[in-house]
Amino acid sequence: SQTIHQWPATLVQPVGSPLSLECTVEGTSNPNLYWYRQAAGRGLQLLFYSVGIGQISSEVPQNLSASRPQDRQFILSSKKLLLSDSGFYLCAWSPDREAEAFFGQGTRLTVV
Amino acid sequence: GNSVTQMEGPVTLSEEAFLTINCTYTATGYPSLFWYVQYPGEGLQLLLKATKADDKGSNKGFEATYRKETTSFHLEKGSVQVSDSAVYFCALSNTGGFKTIFGAGTRLFVKA
Asked: Confidence class of residue A77 from pLDDT cuts 50, 70 and 90?
């Protein structure tokens, strides 16, 4: 069966520090991968999606970047965090463009 | 572009009350429609889905019918329980893209 792992679960980082959140999927190949952000009390904002290794599409210009160095690995990064980067970050995967998405447990990031 | 609009919350109900959470969408083509549920501190889980007009998705007593004529996918449950307290997201996935579009989410509180 397929599983998705996302870590860390919680993170507190100072303003200006770098960020790296990692997500891996097991039990499938060539998944579509997604990073979403959920601000407190708000809906999900799609940040990045990827349909293959090295293929990244950005939905919203911002302080973040994403990379897909391997088929089932998706990384969210920032060189210098801002206070506004605080939120709940969710990684997800889907087998194809019309299928449901399967989510990781999320990372709660607090920038102080 | 594609979008999803769902009723604002929070919705507060007593146990065994009837639940309706409205969801309407805008999309080109024939999207698949989903309801996801998010329990506190967790990622999202798929609750139910429908892939074509007039399909009814159902799970755990919840149901929603894909209404193309009204572009709606309202979530209903005949008798809610305290354990149903969560945030519910309506979403669509379209043939024209590689991403799932989410509504803003509706928080449900069920009182004993």
From this structure: very high
